[in-house]
Amino acid sequence: xxxxxxxxxxxxxxxxxxxxxxxxxxxxxxxxxxxxxxxxxxxxxxxxxxxxxxxxxxxxxxxxxxxxxxxxxxxxxxxxxxxxxxxxxxxxxxxxxxxxxxxxxxxxxxxxxxxxxxxxxxxxxxxxxxxxxxxxxxxxxxxxxxxxxxxxxxxxxxxxxxxxxxxxxxxxxxxxxxxxxxxxxxxxxxxxxxxxxxxxxxxxxxxxxxxxxxxxxxxxxxxxxxxxxxxxxxxxxxxxxxxxxxxxxxxxxxxxxxxxxxxxxxxxxxxxxxxxxxxxxxxxxxxxxxxxxxxxxxxxxxxxxxxxxxxxxxxxxxxxxxxxxxxxxxxxxxxxxxxxxxxxxxxxxxxxxxxxxxxxxxxxxxxxxxxxxxxxxxxxxxxxxxxxxxxxxxxxxxxxxxxxxxxxxxxxxxxxxxxxxxxxxxxxxxxxxxxxxxxxxxxxxxxxxxxxxxxxxxxxxxxxxxxxxxxxxxxxxxxxxxxxxxxxxxxxxxxxxxxxxxxxxxxxxxxxxxxxxxxxxxxxxx
Length: 526
Prior knowledge:
Largest sheet: 7 strands, antiparallel
Number of helices: 9
Oligomer: single chain
Radius of gyration: 33 Å
């Protein structure tokens, strides 16, 4: 027996009720199990991406413009570009270090207060204890800087070992001298397990061991891992060390400063880092760090000598107007910014850079009476929780300067309204932290007259395409977000709520059942 055929009227009513039901009670995504959805989407995207990649590779293989040589040339050019980007990063590090100089002086002065009972003639014996906070911070900065260079060298190693295989096995990457080819002692990166930057002491040098947290000296010609030591006195040369994978032998050669990409046809491309890796600004950075340490230590000793000369032998005897500013008064801790102001790590970083700039005039005019005046609450700067998304920055003539995924203004001498989707001409110069499409962050200064075209504006309340006004606020916190907390995720309905929903739908279900019975009743009367 065939099932009854519903009338068009019934189908129309049922469809209308279904649409009304769907609109009235939307099902939250959170109520649907995540794992099955991910599994289905993974299969779908896998099949789709596999089909796309297959089609692309078939097209690529037939394309006469792509050859093995041109492919390797693109890789070499990309590495050269990354090297140039890292060189620019070196300038950013140097600029940041200069802004931090007097901050570390205050940090050392604050620590030396614990040693007022020590006669100034014997203070040198406590240098490690007094400077431990400064040295630890500088160690972290040093490690981060050299780790970025290590990442570049690791990528090079990966290219040689994992990428240049199969059809590319005859293409090679060497670490060698820049002034001769073929180099008689170049190192094939296929056999290298690790590359890193090292110091070669030209004389006895003063060092701080970042692992053991101790001051010491290293004899002439000592080889030191740049990631693990601060050079605080004396001269060093800089080179690239290579550890051979099979034997474990470590090769230290100051003359091997060039990367060579070689081709089976004899073609070659050289990327030279320069003597002492000058292109990466290694010596510039370590000399700056040495200078910052020396400045902090000399300030601490002078402050200690001044207070001792005034008769104070304990920090509890020192009047408030002679106390240096504790660093956490000037710099809110990352925890405070994250917990109390819902800042992301990127926004915390931008806040610190902006605060350094805003406090610079205070530091340049600082004296020992700043404790009663100086606070991060006394400066104004933009709120780094407000930033621009997917921004095109253009020269005044309209040519694109750069595309960035995020632009966080950290200083701007004025007030200006920006319109998303339009070219906004900067009325004043701007300092900003930007994220490049590859994920790298860098600090830029954008001159007035340049144009900024954002896709949207991000605020703690969400993204918007409405006009947004950039202006400074006290301590860098827009009062409109006072007490703001990140929104809580929507919760899945409980079983009790589901039962209530079913009971609320019961009249509709009964109505649908009655409507479905009407055709049967009418057909039975016939």
